[in-house]
């Protein structure tokens, strides 16, 4: 009897390689080498998680082929409806951040990252990992809010194809003219107020930004809260190079702690710009021929999960320990 696999892929993942160049090879290897009957399913905007199982209700394997958004969709569907089914990852996006942290993806000019990921798909071992949930939506990498988080969302698709992680670095530095937001952060037994350019809740240590958190682990049953408020130009440069994956050290101001749940709210009052942000705003307005508008209180800001906009604050975030099993290289166990 054949085993059944579902290959979920994003037809427009952030890569220059279209599915016509790899999809047939993946299906062939799953059929010939592993004796799977394969169902191929392209994702589309607004697709419901349960739709992933409409043609194959009880698969033996799910393969997520695409970027972090596709991986998030597939892992969320499995976590909610088929938590015992292992998931293989074929990293075809820009950041491929979860795959990096699992040892599935490494950029190497001497090797083919996709070929290495296929080897893991065929011979890897299942590893249980945590997921986060933000306002009912699963995420596998990070949730965020604030101007630095908006920079991740706003990065142009074609720029990501051409420049990969450097595209995020450019967007990051461009936020220096934007004021921070005032956040109320509430975790178990504690609530505090911060002024921040970015609040990130991460499930992984390497966000493609170097080591934003040295303590985050995918199976520790916790998430890492990272509060960032750059005040000098060098801070933005450091954070920009972290997003480019080429900088590990530095002293860009941030605060990190472990949380199992977190409520992120915006306090509706104007946040004072730093001196650098005020200078950047003045330069921007000068070149655009605009006058500085009076500051307006922010009642809400965009909520980000795994690089995509998903509603607005408030953000209720929880960790789901060992939510899914992912195929990884044996050395990662």
Topology (SSEs and partners):
Blueprint: E1 3-9, H1 23-34, E2 36-42, E3 61-66, H2 68-81, E4 87-91, H3 97-101, H4 113-123, E5 125-134, E6 137-139, E7 142-145, H5 147-154, H6 157-163, H7 165-174, E8 181-187, E9 190-196, E10 198-202, E11 223-228, H8 233-243, E12 254-259, E13 261-266, H9 275-288, E14 302-305, E15 308-312, E16 315-328
Parallel strand pairs: 1-2, 1-3, 3-4
Antiparallel strand pairs: 5-6, 5-16, 7-10, 7-14, 8-9, 8-13, 10-11, 11-12, 13-16, 14-15
Helix pairs in contact: 5-7, 6-7, 7-8
Walkthrough of the structure:
The protein is an alpha+beta fold. It folds into two domains: 121 residues, Probable inorganic polyphosphate/atp-NAD kinase, domain 1 (Rossmann fold); 179 residues, Tumour Suppressor Smad4. The protein has nine helices and 16 strands. The strands form three sheets. The protein has a six-stranded antiparallel β-sheet with strand order 6-5-16-13-8-9. The protein has a six-stranded antiparallel β-sheet with strand order 12-11-10-7-14-15, covered by helices on one side. A four-stranded parallel β-sheet has the order 2-1-3-4, with helices on both faces. A hairpin with a 2-residue loop joins strand 5 and strand 6. Helix 5 packs across helix 7 and helix 7 packs antiparallel against helix 8. The longest helix has 14 residues. It is elongated, with a radius of gyration of 20 Å. About 7% of the residues have low confidence.
**What structural category arises from helix and sheet content?**
alpha+beta
Under the CATH scheme, the architecture of the largest domain is: Sandwich
Gyration radius, in Å? 20 Å
CA-to-CA gap between the ends?
Answer: 30 Å
Strand content range: 25-35%
- Strand neighbour order, sheet with most strands: 6-5-16-13-8-9
The averaged pLDDT comes out at: 80
Element-level helix/strand string: EHEEHEHHEEEHHHEEEEHEEHEEE
- Count of the domains: 2
| Helix share, percent | 25-40%
Residue ranges: pLDDT <50 for 5 or more in a row? 159-167, 240-253
What's the CATH first level of the largest domain?
Mainly Beta
């Amino acid at each position: 009897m054949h085993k059944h696999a579902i290959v979920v892929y994003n037809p427009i993942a952030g890569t220059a390689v279209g599915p016509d160049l790899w999809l047939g090879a993946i299906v062939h290897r799953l059929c010939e080498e592993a004796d799977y009957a394969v169902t191929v399913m392209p994702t589309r905007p607004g697709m419901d998680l349960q739709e992933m199982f409409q043609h194959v209700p009880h698969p033996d394997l799910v393969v997520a082929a695409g970027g972090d958004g596709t991986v998030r969709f597939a892992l969320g569907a499995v976590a909610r409806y088929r938590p015992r089914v292992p998931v293989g990852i074929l990293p075809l996006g820009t950041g491929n951040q979860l795959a990096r942290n699992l040892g599935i993806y490494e950029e190497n000019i001497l090797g083919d990252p996709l070929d290495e990921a296929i080897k893991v798909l065929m011979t890897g071992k299942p590893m249980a990992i945590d997921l986060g949930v933000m306002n009912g939506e699963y995420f596998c990498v990070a949730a965020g809010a604030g101007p630095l988080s908006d920079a991740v969302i706003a990065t142009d698709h074609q720029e990501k194809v051409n420049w990969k992680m450097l595209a995020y670095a450019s967007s990051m530095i461009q936020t220096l003219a934007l004021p921070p937001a005032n956040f109320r952060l509430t975790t178990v037994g504690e609530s505090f107020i911060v002024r921040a350019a970015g609040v990130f809740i991460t499930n992984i240590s390497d966000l493609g930004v170097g080591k934003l958190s040295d303590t985050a682990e995918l199976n520790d049953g916790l998430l890492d809260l990272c509060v960032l408020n750059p005040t000098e130009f060098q801070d933005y440069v450091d954070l920009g190079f972290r997003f480019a994956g080429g900088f590990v050290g530095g002293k860009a101001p941030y605060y990190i702690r472990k949380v199992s749940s977190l409520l992120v709210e915006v306090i509706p009052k104007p946040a004072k710009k730093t001196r650098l942000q005020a200078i950047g705003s003045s330069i921007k307005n000068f070149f655009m021929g605009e006058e500085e508008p009076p500051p307006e209180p922010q009642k809400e800001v965009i909520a980000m999960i795994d690089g995509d906009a998903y509603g607005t604050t408030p953000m209720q975030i929880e960790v789901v320990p060992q939510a899914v099993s992912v195929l990884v290289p044996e050395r990662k166990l």
